[in-house]
Amino acid sequence: MSNSQEDKKKVKKGCIAVRVGLEEEDGGFQRFVIPISYLYHPLFKRLLEKAHEVYGYHTTGPLWLPCSVDDFLHLRWRIERESGHQSHHSHLQQHLPSSLSFHSC
User: Where is the signal peptide (predicted)?
Assistant: First the structure.
């Protein structure tokens, strides 16, 4: 499926499509559909700030995120884990681990 066809796929209500990857990665970019609630998570907000620095506000199609697919999957895992334990662990530190790498183009 071409990128333009993939970008036009329907996204269910309450979700947003994002495109993740770095140009130097072998797998290229990958599309993910994530809950809108991620946009309010402190870890994800840091990534959104970096996306603004790299790509600006005006893009078409999915939201582009400047991190490797592996780092995004780790970030998604952390958000899911913290969301599942939020009521029990509201004191969790909200910082990005040093292993996550956000790259500029």
Answer: none
